[in-house]
Amino acid sequence: MNMTGAKRFSKASGASRASDTIRWIVAAIGALVMLFPLYWMFATALKSKGEVFSRQIHLWPTQWEWSNFSKAWNSMPFTHWYINSFAIAIIAVIITVFINLLAGYTFAKYKFWGRDIIFFAMLSTLMIPIQAIIVPEFLIISKLGWVDSYWGVVFPRAAEAFGIFMVRQFMMSIPDDLIEAARLDGASEFTIFRKIILPLSKPAIAVLVIFTFMWRWNDFEWPIVALQSQHAYTVPLGLNLMQGPYGTNWPYLMAMALVSIIPILIIFVLFQRYFVQGIASTGLK
Amino acid sequence: MAERPGLGFSSRESGVETALRQNEQPTRSNRPPQKQAGWWSRHQKRIIPYIFITPNLLVFAVFMFIPLLFAFYVSFHQWSLIGTSQFNGFSNYSEMVHDHQFWQSLRNTVVYTIGTVPTSMVLGLAVALLLNRKLPARGLLRSIYFMPVVISGVVVALVGEWLFNDNYGIVDEVLGRFGVGTIHWLSSSTWAMPTLIIMTLWIRVGFCMVIYLAGLQSISSMYYDAAKVDGATVWGQFRHVTWPLLKPTTFLILIINVIFSFKVFDIVYVMTGGGPGFSTTVLVQYIYEQAFQNSDLGYACAMGVVVYLLILIFTVVQWRISRQGESTY
Fold this sequence. Notes:
The structure holds 2 protein chains of 2 kinds.
Chain A: H1 14-45, H2 49-52, H3 67-75, H4 78-109, H5 115-124, H6 130-143, H7 150-154, H8 161-171, H9 176-184, H10 189-200, H11 202-218, H12 221-226, H13 235-241, H14 250-282
Helix pairs in contact in A: 1-14, 3-14, 4-8, 4-11, 9-10, 11-14
Chain B: H1 12-29, H2 39-75, E1 77-79, E2 85-87, H3 91-98, H4 100-131, H5 138-146, H6 153-163, H7 170-177, H8 192-217, H9 221-229, H10 234-245, H11 247-262, H12 266-271, H13 283-292, H14 297-328
Antiparallel strand pairs in B: 1-2
Helix pairs in contact in B: 2-14, 3-14, 4-8, 4-11, 5-8, 8-11, 13-14
Protein backbone atom coordinates (compact mmCIF):
# COMPACT_ATOMS: atom_id res chain seq x y z
CA MET A 1 0.00 0.00 0.00
CA ASN A 2 1.80 3.06 -1.26
CA MET A 3 0.52 6.30 0.21
CA THR A 4 1.43 9.23 -1.96
CA GLY A 5 1.44 12.82 -0.78
CA ALA A 6 -1.70 13.68 -2.70
CA LYS A 7 -3.58 10.66 -1.49
CA ARG A 8 -3.28 11.43 2.19
CA PHE A 9 -5.55 14.46 1.87
CA SER A 10 -8.40 12.53 0.32
CA LYS A 11 -10.40 11.27 3.26
CA ALA A 12 -10.23 7.51 3.83
CA SER A 13 -9.81 5.95 0.46
CA GLY A 14 -11.58 2.65 -0.21
CA ALA A 15 -8.50 0.57 0.52
CA SER A 16 -7.82 2.19 3.87
CA ARG A 17 -11.47 1.94 4.87
CA ALA A 18 -11.35 -1.77 4.17
CA SER A 19 -8.15 -2.15 6.15
CA ASP A 20 -9.68 -0.18 9.01
CA THR A 21 -12.57 -2.61 9.06
CA ILE A 22 -10.16 -5.52 9.23
CA ARG A 23 -8.26 -3.77 12.02
CA TRP A 24 -11.45 -3.23 13.94
CA ILE A 25 -12.49 -6.86 13.58
CA VAL A 26 -9.08 -8.06 14.76
CA ALA A 27 -9.19 -5.69 17.73
CA ALA A 28 -12.73 -6.75 18.60
CA ILE A 29 -11.91 -10.46 18.46
CA GLY A 30 -8.94 -9.81 20.72
CA ALA A 31 -11.19 -7.93 23.11
CA LEU A 32 -13.61 -10.86 23.24
CA VAL A 33 -10.72 -13.16 24.10
CA MET A 34 -9.69 -10.77 26.88
CA LEU A 35 -13.23 -10.67 28.24
CA PHE A 36 -13.85 -14.38 28.06
CA PRO A 37 -12.13 -15.44 31.32
CA LEU A 38 -14.24 -12.91 33.20
CA TYR A 39 -17.39 -14.13 31.52
CA TRP A 40 -16.48 -17.73 32.22
CA MET A 41 -15.99 -16.91 35.88
CA PHE A 42 -19.45 -15.38 35.93
CA ALA A 43 -21.09 -18.27 34.05
CA THR A 44 -19.41 -20.89 36.23
CA ALA A 45 -20.36 -19.06 39.40
CA LEU A 46 -24.03 -19.39 38.47
CA LYS A 47 -24.01 -23.03 37.43
CA SER A 48 -24.96 -25.91 39.64
CA LYS A 49 -22.22 -28.28 40.70
CA GLY A 50 -23.86 -31.02 38.64
CA GLU A 51 -23.79 -28.94 35.50
CA VAL A 52 -20.17 -27.92 35.94
CA PHE A 53 -18.98 -31.47 36.46
CA SER A 54 -20.63 -32.97 33.43
CA ARG A 55 -18.91 -33.67 30.13
CA GLN A 56 -21.43 -31.43 28.42
CA ILE A 57 -20.19 -27.84 28.58
CA HIS A 58 -22.77 -25.09 28.20
CA LEU A 59 -21.69 -21.55 27.43
CA TRP A 60 -24.71 -20.27 29.31
CA PRO A 61 -25.92 -21.66 32.66
CA THR A 62 -29.03 -23.81 32.13
CA GLN A 63 -30.20 -22.98 35.63
CA TRP A 64 -29.21 -19.81 37.44
CA GLU A 65 -27.98 -20.73 40.90
CA TRP A 66 -27.77 -17.35 42.57
CA SER A 67 -27.64 -19.08 45.93
CA ASN A 68 -24.09 -20.18 45.06
CA PHE A 69 -22.90 -16.77 46.23
CA SER A 70 -24.35 -16.88 49.71
CA LYS A 71 -23.52 -20.55 50.17
CA ALA A 72 -19.93 -20.06 49.11
CA TRP A 73 -19.62 -16.98 51.31
CA ASN A 74 -20.81 -18.93 54.32
CA SER A 75 -18.69 -21.98 53.61
CA MET A 76 -15.58 -20.10 54.72
CA PRO A 77 -14.91 -17.14 57.06
CA PHE A 78 -15.20 -14.65 54.23
CA THR A 79 -16.72 -11.88 56.35
CA HIS A 80 -13.61 -12.02 58.48
CA TRP A 81 -11.27 -12.04 55.49
CA TYR A 82 -13.01 -9.10 53.88
CA ILE A 83 -12.75 -7.08 57.08
CA ASN A 84 -9.03 -7.88 57.16
CA SER A 85 -8.54 -7.02 53.50
CA PHE A 86 -10.40 -3.72 53.73
CA ALA A 87 -8.69 -2.76 56.98
CA ILE A 88 -5.24 -3.51 55.59
CA ALA A 89 -5.92 -1.71 52.31
CA ILE A 90 -7.34 1.38 54.02
CA ILE A 91 -4.64 1.67 56.68
CA ALA A 92 -2.01 1.15 53.98
CA VAL A 93 -3.56 3.84 51.79
CA ILE A 94 -3.52 6.39 54.60
CA ILE A 95 0.06 5.71 55.68
CA THR A 96 1.53 5.19 52.22
CA VAL A 97 -0.06 8.26 50.69
CA PHE A 98 0.98 10.48 53.58
CA ILE A 99 4.63 9.47 53.81
CA ASN A 100 5.19 9.25 50.06
CA LEU A 101 3.61 12.64 49.42
CA LEU A 102 5.85 14.21 52.05
CA ALA A 103 8.97 12.57 50.65
CA GLY A 104 8.12 13.25 47.00
CA TYR A 105 7.42 16.88 47.81
CA THR A 106 10.69 17.20 49.71
CA PHE A 107 12.72 15.76 46.84
CA ALA A 108 11.00 18.07 44.37
CA LYS A 109 11.09 21.32 46.28
CA TYR A 110 13.94 21.38 48.80
CA LYS A 111 17.67 21.53 48.31
CA PHE A 112 19.45 19.75 51.10
CA TRP A 113 22.68 17.95 51.71
CA GLY A 114 22.56 14.36 50.44
CA ARG A 115 19.33 14.82 48.52
CA ASP A 116 20.38 13.17 45.28
CA ILE A 117 22.12 10.27 46.97
CA ILE A 118 19.13 9.55 49.19
CA PHE A 119 16.76 9.82 46.23
CA PHE A 120 18.87 7.44 44.21
CA ALA A 121 19.08 5.01 47.13
CA MET A 122 15.29 5.03 47.41
CA LEU A 123 14.85 4.40 43.68
CA SER A 124 17.37 1.58 43.86
CA THR A 125 14.96 -0.35 46.08
CA LEU A 126 13.02 -1.10 42.88
CA MET A 127 15.88 -3.40 42.02
CA ILE A 128 15.87 -5.37 45.25
CA PRO A 129 14.15 -8.64 44.45
CA ILE A 130 11.51 -9.95 46.82
CA GLN A 131 13.47 -13.21 46.86
CA ALA A 132 16.35 -11.59 48.72
CA ILE A 133 14.47 -9.84 51.50
CA ILE A 134 11.35 -11.88 52.15
CA VAL A 135 13.02 -14.05 54.81
CA PRO A 136 14.85 -11.30 56.74
CA GLU A 137 11.71 -9.17 56.55
CA PHE A 138 9.81 -11.96 58.20
CA LEU A 139 12.45 -12.23 60.91
CA ILE A 140 12.13 -8.49 61.54
CA ILE A 141 8.34 -8.44 61.81
CA SER A 142 8.40 -11.47 64.07
CA LYS A 143 10.91 -9.66 66.32
CA LEU A 144 8.49 -6.72 66.38
CA GLY A 145 5.66 -9.09 67.28
CA TRP A 146 3.77 -8.19 64.10
CA VAL A 147 3.12 -11.65 62.67
CA ASP A 148 -0.65 -12.01 62.07
CA SER A 149 -1.19 -8.27 62.64
CA TYR A 150 -2.24 -5.58 60.17
CA TRP A 151 0.97 -3.66 60.85
CA GLY A 152 3.14 -6.54 59.73
CA VAL A 153 1.40 -6.47 56.35
CA VAL A 154 1.15 -2.70 56.00
CA PHE A 155 4.48 -1.26 57.12
CA PRO A 156 7.02 -3.25 55.09
CA ARG A 157 5.30 -2.11 51.89
CA ALA A 158 4.39 1.42 53.03
CA ALA A 159 7.31 3.23 51.41
CA GLU A 160 7.09 2.97 47.65
CA ALA A 161 9.78 4.07 45.22
CA PHE A 162 7.04 4.28 42.62
CA GLY A 163 5.03 6.67 44.78
CA ILE A 164 7.95 8.94 45.60
CA PHE A 165 9.04 9.09 41.98
CA MET A 166 5.56 9.86 40.72
CA VAL A 167 4.88 12.50 43.37
CA ARG A 168 8.24 14.14 42.75
CA GLN A 169 7.56 14.38 39.01
CA PHE A 170 4.19 15.90 39.75
CA MET A 171 5.38 18.37 42.39
CA MET A 172 8.10 19.74 40.14
CA SER A 173 5.34 21.38 38.09
CA ILE A 174 4.17 23.43 41.07
CA PRO A 175 5.76 26.88 40.79
CA ASP A 176 8.40 27.73 43.41
CA ASP A 177 7.13 31.33 43.61
CA LEU A 178 4.02 30.15 45.32
CA ILE A 179 5.99 28.46 48.08
CA GLU A 180 8.34 31.43 48.43
CA ALA A 181 5.41 33.83 48.71
CA ALA A 182 3.90 31.77 51.51
CA ARG A 183 7.27 31.69 53.26
CA LEU A 184 7.50 35.47 53.09
CA ASP A 185 4.06 35.62 54.66
CA GLY A 186 5.53 33.70 57.55
CA ALA A 187 3.88 30.37 56.94
CA SER A 188 5.70 27.45 58.54
CA GLU A 189 7.01 24.69 56.28
CA PHE A 190 4.38 22.25 57.42
CA THR A 191 1.62 24.83 56.88
CA ILE A 192 2.88 25.33 53.34
CA PHE A 193 2.64 21.60 52.74
CA ARG A 194 -0.81 21.33 54.26
CA LYS A 195 -2.42 24.50 52.92
CA ILE A 196 -0.76 24.96 49.55
CA ILE A 197 0.80 21.75 48.33
CA LEU A 198 -1.90 19.27 49.38
CA PRO A 199 -4.79 21.06 47.65
CA LEU A 200 -2.73 21.32 44.47
CA SER A 201 -1.80 17.65 44.48
CA LYS A 202 -5.21 16.04 44.12
CA PRO A 203 -4.39 14.22 40.86
CA ALA A 204 -1.19 12.76 42.30
CA ILE A 205 -3.01 11.79 45.49
CA ALA A 206 -5.69 10.07 43.44
CA VAL A 207 -3.12 7.99 41.57
CA LEU A 208 -1.39 7.04 44.81
CA VAL A 209 -4.62 6.12 46.57
CA ILE A 210 -5.83 3.95 43.72
CA PHE A 211 -2.58 2.11 43.18
CA THR A 212 -1.92 1.54 46.86
CA PHE A 213 -5.42 0.16 47.30
CA MET A 214 -5.02 -2.13 44.30
CA TRP A 215 -1.61 -3.43 45.40
CA ARG A 216 -2.73 -4.15 48.94
CA TRP A 217 -6.02 -5.64 47.84
CA ASN A 218 -4.34 -8.01 45.38
CA ASP A 219 -1.16 -8.77 47.27
CA PHE A 220 -0.44 -12.42 47.96
CA GLU A 221 3.25 -13.13 48.46
CA TRP A 222 3.86 -10.83 51.41
CA PRO A 223 0.58 -11.54 53.31
CA ILE A 224 1.10 -15.27 53.00
CA VAL A 225 4.40 -14.84 54.81
CA ALA A 226 3.28 -12.25 57.36
CA LEU A 227 -0.10 -13.83 58.16
CA GLN A 228 0.35 -17.31 59.55
CA SER A 229 -3.06 -18.13 61.00
CA GLN A 230 -6.26 -18.35 59.03
CA HIS A 231 -8.26 -15.83 61.04
CA ALA A 232 -5.73 -13.16 60.02
CA TYR A 233 -5.93 -14.01 56.31
CA THR A 234 -6.85 -11.57 53.57
CA VAL A 235 -9.22 -12.42 50.71
CA PRO A 236 -6.60 -13.69 48.21
CA LEU A 237 -5.16 -16.07 50.82
CA GLY A 238 -8.66 -17.26 51.62
CA LEU A 239 -9.45 -17.89 47.97
CA ASN A 240 -6.32 -19.99 47.67
CA LEU A 241 -7.54 -22.00 50.63
CA MET A 242 -10.77 -22.89 48.81
CA GLN A 243 -8.86 -25.25 46.54
CA GLY A 244 -9.29 -28.51 48.36
CA PRO A 245 -6.84 -31.38 48.02
CA TYR A 246 -9.80 -33.67 47.24
CA GLY A 247 -11.39 -31.62 44.52
CA THR A 248 -12.56 -28.07 44.31
CA ASN A 249 -16.11 -26.74 44.24
CA TRP A 250 -15.62 -24.63 41.14
CA PRO A 251 -18.94 -22.76 41.14
CA TYR A 252 -18.28 -21.63 44.72
CA LEU A 253 -14.69 -20.75 44.01
CA MET A 254 -15.55 -18.77 40.88
CA ALA A 255 -18.35 -16.99 42.74
CA MET A 256 -15.97 -15.88 45.45
CA ALA A 257 -13.22 -14.99 42.97
CA LEU A 258 -15.74 -12.81 41.13
CA VAL A 259 -16.84 -11.09 44.34
CA SER A 260 -13.21 -10.45 45.26
CA ILE A 261 -12.51 -8.45 42.11
CA ILE A 262 -15.68 -6.36 42.29
CA PRO A 263 -14.25 -3.61 44.55
CA ILE A 264 -11.23 -3.16 42.33
CA LEU A 265 -13.30 -3.31 39.13
CA ILE A 266 -15.61 -0.59 40.45
CA ILE A 267 -12.60 1.58 41.21
CA PHE A 268 -11.26 0.81 37.76
CA VAL A 269 -14.45 1.80 35.99
CA LEU A 270 -14.76 5.04 37.97
CA PHE A 271 -11.13 6.12 37.86
CA GLN A 272 -9.66 4.49 34.80
CA ARG A 273 -8.01 7.77 33.86
CA TYR A 274 -5.83 7.65 36.96
CA PHE A 275 -4.76 4.07 36.34
CA VAL A 276 -3.66 5.04 32.85
CA GLN A 277 -1.88 8.16 34.11
CA GLY A 278 -0.11 6.29 36.87
CA ILE A 279 1.16 3.57 34.59
CA ALA A 280 2.00 5.85 31.68
CA SER A 281 3.85 8.38 33.82
CA THR A 282 6.05 5.95 35.71
CA GLY A 283 5.62 2.63 34.01
CA LEU A 284 4.70 0.78 37.17
CA LYS A 285 1.70 -1.24 38.05
CA MET B 1 13.76 7.48 33.63
CA ALA B 2 13.21 11.09 34.62
CA GLU B 3 13.19 12.79 31.24
CA ARG B 4 10.33 11.37 29.28
CA PRO B 5 8.41 14.23 27.77
CA GLY B 6 4.88 13.49 26.83
CA LEU B 7 4.56 10.47 29.07
CA GLY B 8 3.76 12.41 32.20
CA PHE B 9 0.57 14.03 33.24
CA SER B 10 -0.40 15.79 30.07
CA SER B 11 -3.01 17.86 31.82
CA ARG B 12 -1.06 18.68 34.94
CA GLU B 13 -0.06 22.24 33.98
CA SER B 14 -3.61 23.37 33.52
CA GLY B 15 -4.76 21.40 36.53
CA VAL B 16 -2.19 23.02 38.77
CA GLU B 17 -2.96 26.45 37.43
CA THR B 18 -6.69 26.27 37.98
CA ALA B 19 -6.14 24.92 41.45
CA LEU B 20 -3.70 27.76 42.02
CA ARG B 21 -6.24 30.39 41.26
CA GLN B 22 -8.71 28.90 43.66
CA ASN B 23 -6.12 28.82 46.37
CA GLU B 24 -4.51 32.18 46.12
CA GLN B 25 -6.84 34.08 48.41
CA PRO B 26 -6.84 32.05 51.60
CA THR B 27 -3.09 31.55 51.80
CA ARG B 28 -2.10 35.14 51.14
CA SER B 29 -4.51 37.07 53.32
CA ASN B 30 -4.12 36.02 56.94
CA ARG B 31 -1.05 35.25 59.03
CA PRO B 32 1.17 38.13 59.98
CA PRO B 33 4.89 37.24 60.03
CA GLN B 34 5.58 35.24 63.14
CA LYS B 35 7.26 37.19 65.89
CA GLN B 36 9.68 34.73 67.41
CA ALA B 37 12.56 34.91 64.94
CA GLY B 38 14.16 32.26 67.09
CA TRP B 39 16.47 29.41 66.29
CA TRP B 40 13.71 27.28 64.80
CA SER B 41 12.32 29.78 62.33
CA ARG B 42 15.81 30.63 61.15
CA HIS B 43 16.78 27.03 60.64
CA GLN B 44 13.53 25.25 59.85
CA LYS B 45 14.01 25.45 56.11
CA ARG B 46 17.22 23.47 56.42
CA ILE B 47 16.02 20.95 58.97
CA ILE B 48 12.49 20.35 57.73
CA PRO B 49 13.49 18.36 54.60
CA TYR B 50 15.11 15.74 56.79
CA ILE B 51 12.05 15.60 59.02
CA PHE B 52 9.80 15.21 55.97
CA ILE B 53 11.69 12.29 54.53
CA THR B 54 12.27 10.56 57.85
CA PRO B 55 9.11 8.39 57.91
CA ASN B 56 9.81 7.14 54.43
CA LEU B 57 13.49 6.65 55.05
CA LEU B 58 12.75 4.76 58.23
CA VAL B 59 10.44 2.31 56.46
CA PHE B 60 12.94 1.82 53.66
CA ALA B 61 15.74 1.29 56.15
CA VAL B 62 13.91 -1.17 58.38
CA PHE B 63 12.15 -3.15 55.62
CA MET B 64 14.50 -2.89 52.64
CA PHE B 65 18.09 -1.96 53.40
CA ILE B 66 18.48 -3.73 56.72
CA PRO B 67 16.80 -6.92 55.41
CA LEU B 68 19.16 -6.88 52.45
CA LEU B 69 22.21 -6.66 54.70
CA PHE B 70 20.61 -9.11 57.11
CA ALA B 71 20.12 -11.55 54.23
CA PHE B 72 23.87 -11.58 53.64
CA TYR B 73 24.44 -12.20 57.34
CA VAL B 74 21.88 -14.98 57.66
CA SER B 75 23.17 -16.63 54.48
CA PHE B 76 26.41 -17.54 56.30
CA HIS B 77 24.51 -19.32 59.05
CA GLN B 78 22.57 -22.43 59.73
CA TRP B 79 19.38 -20.62 60.76
CA SER B 80 16.05 -22.18 61.69
CA LEU B 81 12.52 -20.83 62.07
CA ILE B 82 12.57 -21.12 65.85
CA GLY B 83 15.58 -18.81 65.88
CA THR B 84 18.58 -21.01 66.58
CA SER B 85 21.57 -20.06 64.47
CA GLN B 86 25.10 -21.22 63.95
CA PHE B 87 27.81 -19.82 61.71
CA ASN B 88 28.59 -22.21 58.87
CA GLY B 89 30.65 -20.14 56.46
CA PHE B 90 30.01 -20.72 52.79
CA SER B 91 28.32 -24.07 53.14
CA ASN B 92 24.88 -22.70 52.16
CA TYR B 93 26.44 -21.42 48.96
CA SER B 94 28.23 -24.65 48.20
CA GLU B 95 25.00 -26.54 48.88
CA MET B 96 23.37 -24.38 46.22
CA VAL B 97 25.90 -25.42 43.61
CA HIS B 98 24.85 -29.04 43.99
CA ASP B 99 21.14 -28.42 44.48
CA HIS B 100 19.37 -29.47 41.29
CA GLN B 101 16.10 -28.01 42.47
CA PHE B 102 17.68 -24.60 42.87
CA TRP B 103 19.00 -24.68 39.31
CA GLN B 104 15.70 -26.05 38.08
CA SER B 105 13.75 -23.22 39.72
CA LEU B 106 16.22 -20.65 38.40
CA ARG B 107 15.79 -22.12 34.94
CA ASN B 108 11.99 -22.13 35.30
CA THR B 109 12.06 -18.48 36.34
CA VAL B 110 14.16 -17.59 33.30
CA VAL B 111 11.92 -19.63 30.98
CA TYR B 112 8.86 -17.93 32.41
CA THR B 113 10.51 -14.53 31.95
CA ILE B 114 11.52 -15.26 28.37
CA GLY B 115 8.08 -16.69 27.66
CA THR B 116 6.17 -13.72 29.03
CA VAL B 117 8.24 -10.61 28.33
CA PRO B 118 8.78 -10.50 24.55
CA THR B 119 5.35 -11.96 23.80
CA SER B 120 3.47 -9.50 25.95
CA MET B 121 5.50 -6.62 24.52
CA VAL B 122 4.86 -7.62 20.90
CA LEU B 123 1.15 -8.17 21.53
CA GLY B 124 0.91 -4.98 23.58
CA LEU B 125 2.55 -2.98 20.82
CA ALA B 126 0.29 -4.57 18.20
CA VAL B 127 -2.84 -3.72 20.15
CA ALA B 128 -1.55 -0.21 20.82
CA LEU B 129 -0.94 0.33 17.10
CA LEU B 130 -4.41 -1.00 16.28
CA LEU B 131 -6.12 1.17 18.86
CA ASN B 132 -4.09 4.29 18.19
CA ARG B 133 -6.11 4.85 15.02
CA LYS B 134 -9.56 6.33 14.99
CA LEU B 135 -11.82 3.30 15.19
CA PRO B 136 -15.39 2.98 16.41
CA ALA B 137 -15.63 2.24 20.16
CA ARG B 138 -11.90 2.70 20.51
CA GLY B 139 -12.17 3.83 24.13
CA LEU B 140 -14.21 0.79 25.09
CA LEU B 141 -11.81 -1.58 23.34
CA ARG B 142 -8.86 0.00 25.12
CA SER B 143 -10.64 -0.39 28.47
CA ILE B 144 -11.34 -4.05 27.79
CA TYR B 145 -7.69 -4.79 27.01
CA PHE B 146 -6.58 -2.82 30.02
CA MET B 147 -9.07 -4.13 32.57
CA PRO B 148 -7.36 -7.46 33.46
CA VAL B 149 -4.39 -5.42 34.73
CA VAL B 150 -6.24 -4.72 37.98
CA ILE B 151 -7.12 -8.36 38.69
CA SER B 152 -5.15 -10.11 41.40
CA GLY B 153 -2.69 -12.84 40.53
CA VAL B 154 -4.61 -15.29 42.69
CA VAL B 155 -7.82 -14.79 40.74
CA VAL B 156 -5.94 -15.01 37.44
CA ALA B 157 -4.48 -18.32 38.57
CA LEU B 158 -7.83 -19.71 39.72
CA VAL B 159 -9.60 -18.76 36.50
CA GLY B 160 -6.70 -20.21 34.54
CA GLU B 161 -6.91 -23.42 36.47
CA TRP B 162 -10.59 -23.71 35.63
CA LEU B 163 -10.27 -22.72 31.95
CA PHE B 164 -7.46 -25.22 31.44
CA ASN B 165 -8.90 -27.93 33.70
CA ASP B 166 -8.02 -31.40 32.42
CA ASN B 167 -11.50 -32.86 32.72
CA TYR B 168 -13.97 -30.02 32.59
CA GLY B 169 -11.97 -27.16 31.04
CA ILE B 170 -13.49 -25.17 28.23
CA VAL B 171 -10.18 -24.75 26.42
CA ASP B 172 -9.86 -28.48 25.77
CA GLU B 173 -13.54 -28.58 24.83
CA VAL B 174 -13.09 -25.87 22.19
CA LEU B 175 -9.86 -27.40 20.89
CA GLY B 176 -11.67 -30.74 20.72
CA ARG B 177 -14.20 -29.23 18.32
CA PHE B 178 -11.29 -28.41 16.04
CA GLY B 179 -10.07 -31.98 16.25
CA VAL B 180 -7.26 -31.41 18.73
CA GLY B 181 -7.00 -34.21 21.27
CA THR B 182 -7.17 -33.60 24.99
CA ILE B 183 -4.16 -31.72 26.26
CA HIS B 184 -3.33 -32.16 29.93
CA TRP B 185 -2.48 -28.55 30.43
CA LEU B 186 -1.70 -28.40 34.11
CA SER B 187 -0.87 -32.00 34.85
CA SER B 188 1.82 -32.44 32.22
CA SER B 189 5.26 -30.99 32.75
CA THR B 190 5.41 -29.96 29.09
CA TRP B 191 2.27 -27.85 29.11
CA ALA B 192 2.14 -26.45 32.63
CA MET B 193 4.63 -23.67 31.93
CA PRO B 194 2.99 -22.54 28.66
CA THR B 195 -0.35 -22.43 30.49
CA LEU B 196 1.14 -20.16 33.15
CA ILE B 197 2.59 -17.95 30.45
CA ILE B 198 -0.75 -17.70 28.61
CA MET B 199 -2.56 -16.65 31.77
CA THR B 200 0.14 -14.09 32.52
CA LEU B 201 -0.26 -12.62 29.04
CA TRP B 202 -3.89 -12.01 29.86
CA ILE B 203 -2.95 -9.38 32.43
CA ARG B 204 0.32 -8.23 30.87
CA VAL B 205 -0.75 -7.31 27.32
CA GLY B 206 -3.01 -4.46 28.42
CA PHE B 207 -0.28 -3.16 30.67
CA CYS B 208 2.21 -2.97 27.79
CA MET B 209 -0.50 -1.52 25.56
CA VAL B 210 -1.12 1.43 27.88
CA ILE B 211 2.54 2.43 28.05
CA TYR B 212 2.96 1.97 24.30
CA LEU B 213 -0.15 4.08 23.64
CA ALA B 214 1.33 6.87 25.75
CA GLY B 215 4.54 6.53 23.76
CA LEU B 216 2.72 6.56 20.43
CA GLN B 217 0.76 9.64 21.37
CA SER B 218 3.94 11.53 22.09
CA ILE B 219 5.14 11.03 18.50
CA SER B 220 4.33 14.11 16.45
CA SER B 221 2.25 13.46 13.31
CA MET B 222 4.77 15.66 11.52
CA TYR B 223 7.09 12.69 11.18
CA TYR B 224 4.42 10.56 9.57
CA ASP B 225 3.45 13.30 7.17
CA ALA B 226 7.08 13.66 6.14
CA ALA B 227 7.40 9.90 5.71
CA LYS B 228 4.27 9.78 3.58
CA VAL B 229 5.53 12.61 1.39
CA ASP B 230 8.63 10.51 0.86
CA GLY B 231 6.36 7.66 -0.20
CA ALA B 232 7.06 5.38 2.76
CA THR B 233 4.90 2.27 3.04
CA VAL B 234 3.03 1.46 6.22
CA TRP B 235 5.81 -0.94 7.16
CA GLY B 236 8.41 1.68 6.25
CA GLN B 237 6.72 4.20 8.51
CA PHE B 238 6.75 1.75 11.36
CA ARG B 239 10.35 0.70 10.73
CA HIS B 240 11.80 4.17 10.33
CA VAL B 241 9.55 6.43 12.40
CA THR B 242 7.52 4.59 15.01
CA TRP B 243 9.98 1.96 16.17
CA PRO B 244 13.04 4.23 16.60
CA LEU B 245 10.97 6.87 18.41
CA LEU B 246 9.45 4.23 20.68
CA LYS B 247 12.85 2.97 21.77
CA PRO B 248 12.87 4.64 25.19
CA THR B 249 9.34 3.34 25.81
CA THR B 250 10.35 -0.17 24.76
CA PHE B 251 13.35 -0.05 27.05
CA LEU B 252 11.21 1.02 29.99
CA ILE B 253 8.61 -1.69 29.37
CA LEU B 254 11.33 -4.30 28.98
CA ILE B 255 12.94 -3.48 32.33
CA ILE B 256 9.64 -3.41 34.21
CA ASN B 257 8.40 -6.60 32.59
CA VAL B 258 11.58 -8.45 33.44
CA ILE B 259 11.32 -7.28 37.05
CA PHE B 260 7.68 -8.41 37.23
CA SER B 261 8.34 -11.77 35.66
CA PHE B 262 11.43 -12.50 37.66
CA LYS B 263 9.62 -12.07 40.96
CA VAL B 264 6.53 -14.04 39.98
CA PHE B 265 4.99 -16.06 42.77
CA ASP B 266 1.22 -15.81 43.18
CA ILE B 267 0.15 -17.04 39.74
CA VAL B 268 2.50 -20.02 39.82
CA TYR B 269 1.98 -20.93 43.45
CA VAL B 270 -1.81 -20.94 43.18
CA MET B 271 -2.14 -22.41 39.70
CA THR B 272 0.38 -25.26 39.66
CA GLY B 273 1.98 -25.16 43.09
CA GLY B 274 5.25 -25.52 41.21
CA GLY B 275 4.29 -28.87 39.76
CA PRO B 276 3.94 -31.30 38.24
CA GLY B 277 7.15 -32.36 39.94
CA PHE B 278 9.40 -29.33 39.90
CA SER B 279 8.53 -28.37 36.35
CA THR B 280 7.14 -24.94 37.21
CA THR B 281 8.71 -24.15 40.59
CA VAL B 282 10.03 -20.60 40.44
CA LEU B 283 12.68 -19.00 42.63
CA VAL B 284 10.39 -17.10 44.99
CA GLN B 285 8.44 -20.25 45.68
CA TYR B 286 11.52 -22.39 46.25
CA ILE B 287 12.94 -19.81 48.64
CA TYR B 288 9.59 -19.52 50.40
CA GLU B 289 9.38 -23.27 50.84
CA GLN B 290 12.96 -23.66 51.99
CA ALA B 291 12.40 -20.96 54.61
CA PHE B 292 8.91 -21.61 55.87
CA GLN B 293 8.36 -25.29 55.24
CA ASN B 294 11.90 -26.63 55.54
CA SER B 295 12.91 -24.15 58.23
CA ASP B 296 16.21 -23.57 56.44
CA LEU B 297 16.38 -19.79 56.57
CA GLY B 298 20.12 -19.60 56.01
CA TYR B 299 19.87 -21.47 52.73
CA ALA B 300 16.83 -19.42 51.65
CA CYS B 301 18.77 -16.22 52.29
CA ALA B 302 21.81 -17.47 50.39
CA MET B 303 19.61 -18.07 47.35
CA GLY B 304 18.06 -14.62 47.78
CA VAL B 305 21.51 -13.05 47.83
CA VAL B 306 22.43 -14.83 44.59
CA VAL B 307 19.22 -13.63 42.95
CA TYR B 308 19.96 -10.10 44.09
CA LEU B 309 23.43 -10.23 42.56
CA LEU B 310 22.00 -11.62 39.32
CA ILE B 311 19.49 -8.77 39.09
CA LEU B 312 22.23 -6.28 39.88
CA ILE B 313 24.36 -7.61 37.03
CA PHE B 314 21.39 -7.66 34.66
CA THR B 315 20.51 -4.06 35.48
CA VAL B 316 24.06 -2.78 35.05
CA VAL B 317 24.44 -4.60 31.72
CA GLN B 318 21.07 -3.32 30.51
CA TRP B 319 21.96 0.18 31.51
CA ARG B 320 25.31 -0.01 29.75
CA ILE B 321 23.67 -1.31 26.58
CA SER B 322 21.04 1.38 26.57
CA ARG B 323 23.65 4.09 27.06
CA GLN B 324 25.75 2.68 24.24
CA GLY B 325 22.67 2.73 22.04
CA GLU B 326 22.17 6.39 22.79
CA SER B 327 25.69 7.39 21.92
CA THR B 328 25.75 5.58 18.60
CA TYR B 329 22.24 6.52 17.64
